[in-house]
Specification:
single chain, 154 residues, 5% strand
């Protein structure tokens, strides 16, 4: 946050824990925690509170829509994380949840790309498919193909 200059051409800056500057030169994941509202909104308490209420309501609507989409057709988890991203523009807890989620997804992706894990997953998938094929063959051998409707020669 720029607080002015001392006349010698240097700019004095003060950064608190909620407004820490990223050390990585602009990496998105290392941005400081806190509100991303414009300065003129943060300067007025009532306006900032109404801004936060609006962000919360919009984020809640998006998260609820995502939850509804979980059992129904639609990208439920994507929409839920979109709502969380909306909340993360204003609320520190949502920013922390998104950081944790990104870290876990990255770790899972790295583990999934490990050759030993890939071989294990392929082996387990093949074994599962063989078991399903054997069970299907036993069922068809015992009961045959039965149509779900009763059609006699008409």
């Amino acid at each position: 946050m720029n607080t002015g200059s001392d006349g010698s051409g240097e700019v004095t800056t003060v950064s608190g824990p909620a407004e820490a500057e990223p050390e990585t030169g602009g990496a998105q994941e290392e941005r400081g925690l806190g509100s991303r509202a414009p300065g003129f909104i943060k300067a007025r308490r009532v306006l900032h509170m109404s801004w936060q209420v609006g962000v919360f309501v919009i984020g809640l609507a998006v998260v609820v829509a995502g939850i509804i989409m979980l059992p129904l057709p639609g990208p439920g988890w994507v929409v839920i994380f979109g709502g969380m991203a909306i909340w993360a523009t204003e609320f520190v807890w949502a920013q922390l949840v998104l950081r944790w989620t990104k870290r876990k997804v990255t770790e899972a992706a790295q583990r999934a790309l490990d050759p030993a894990v890939r071989r294990r997953n392929i082996t387990l998938t093949v074994i599962g498919l063989v078991i399903v094929a054997v069970l299907l063959a036993i069922y068809l051998w015992k009961f045959g193909v039965v149509m779900p409707w009763k059609i006699k020669d008409q």
